[in-house]
């Protein structure tokens, strides 16, 4: 799921690069939902679960990682070979 500072042209370039290799998702917030020229609000909504299953927000900034299920987070660390802090 790509989401950091995306706009539609950037999402299309990423899709063209990776679509034949993996499933992709995009979160285009401010640039998609605020197209009326006003200063955007600094509001972020983050998914915490889906269909009674845990989810995680992974970030290149460790303080922005979000997951309420420590077992799922441990699983992700194992899959992506990342040591716990």
Overview of this protein structure:
Helices cover 29% and strands 5% of the residues. It is mostly helical. The protein has two domains: 1-35, no CATH class; 49-79, no CATH class. The longest helix is centred in the N-terminal third of the chain and has 11 residues, at 8-18. The two termini are 23 Å apart. The relative contact order is 0.11.
Task: Provide a compact summary of the structure.
Helix content is 29%, strand content 5%. It is mainly α and 85 residues long.
**How much helicity do the residues have?**
25-40%
Oligomeric state of the chains in view: single chain
Kindly state the number of beta strands.
2
Instruction: Give the overall form.
Output: globular
Keywords:
single chain, globular, 85 residues, 5% strand, two-stranded antiparallel ribbon, 2 strands, mainly alpha
Provide the fold topology.
Blueprint: H1 8-18, H2 30-33, E1 49-50, E2 53-54, H3 70-79
């Amino acid at each position: 799921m790509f989401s950091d500072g995306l706009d539609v042209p950037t999402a299309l370039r990423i899709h063209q690069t990776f679509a034949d290799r993996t499933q992709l998702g995009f979160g285009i917030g401010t640039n998609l939902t605020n197209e009326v020229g006003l200063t955007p609000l600094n509001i972020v909504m983050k998914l915490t679960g889906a269909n009674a299953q845990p989810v995680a927000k992974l970030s290149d900034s460790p303080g922005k990682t979000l997951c309420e299920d420590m077992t799922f987070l441990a699983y992700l660390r194992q899959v992506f070979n990342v040591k716990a802090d």
